[in-house]
Each structure stands twice: as C-alpha cells, then as structure tokens.
Amino acid sequence: MALKKKKRRVVKKKTSKKRKPVVKKAAKKKAPKKVLKKKAAKRGTGKAVVKKPKQEVIGVITHYFPKVRAAVIKLKTPLAVGDTIKVKGHTTDFIQQITSMQMDHVPVDVAKKGQEIGLLVNSRVRQHDIVCKP
Fold first, then answer.
1. Residue 103 belongs to a domain
2. For the chain, what is the radius of gyration of the CA atoms?
3. CA 132, CA 122: separation in Å to the nearest integer?
4. Which of these, 11, 60, 101, 128, has the minimum number of CB atoms within 10 Å of its CB?
5. Could you report how far apart the first and last alpha carbons of the chain are, in Å?
6. How many domains does the chain have?
7. 105: left (phi over 0), alpha (psi -120 to 50) or beta
8. Using one digit for the tens of pLDDT, what is the confidence trace for 45-87?
9. Strand partners, 87
10. Contacts 24+ apart (CB under 8 A), 8-11
C-alpha cells in the first residue's frame, strides 16, 4: 500500500508597498479686511467713532467679603479716604466715595502703591474687577 502524500497549500504573504508621505499644502492666508471708519463717518454711512480717554487704574479687587460688604484691593497707585473711585467689571459698574479703609485690621487714611487694603463697598464686587478714578 502506498501512502498518499498530502498536498500543502502555500500562502503568499502580502507585501506592504511603501507609501510616499503626503505633503499638505499650506492654506493661503487671507488678508484682513480693512475697515474704513474715518471715511464712513465722513460720508455719513457709518457710525462716528469717539475714543474715550483712558481712565487711571488705581488697583484690582483680589477678594470680597459679602457679609460685611468689604473688598480687598491690591493698589497700583496711592489712595486716600475721601477719594472717589469707580469699580468696573463684567457685571459690576458703580461709583462711590471712600469712607472707610483698613490695612491689617487697622484703620488708615492713606495707602501707598503695592499695598493691599480693605475697603467698604456699596454693592457686590468680584475678583479681578478694576478700580479706577472716574
């Protein structure tokens, strides 16, 4: 009896072809459209642009105590009792006169640049609100 030989199947492996790297073209940048505000204002077709003078920044509010309605301000310029300040922020905008000012729980009349003071405020303020002169 002769033994039958089994046929073997040969499987060819697929070879991966080397792909060339894809080079993306840079998008062309469009030049920004120039707005001719001055000419539009002269012709009467647009709104006239009125620049407001920049207000002098006195400091920035770093903390607020709602129960006593007091704010902590980091000063950038000197400040004294009796001065008028304007507090401006995202939801805040009011003017008030300084009646009480403290530094380390001690009442003071004048505070210098760089100091942190406690100040009674008339309405709610938030961190990062700007204190300036009106």
1. yes
2. 35
3. 16
4. 11
5. 115
6. 1
7. left
8. 556 666 666 788 999 999 999 999 999 999 999 999 999 999 9
9. 94, 131
10. none
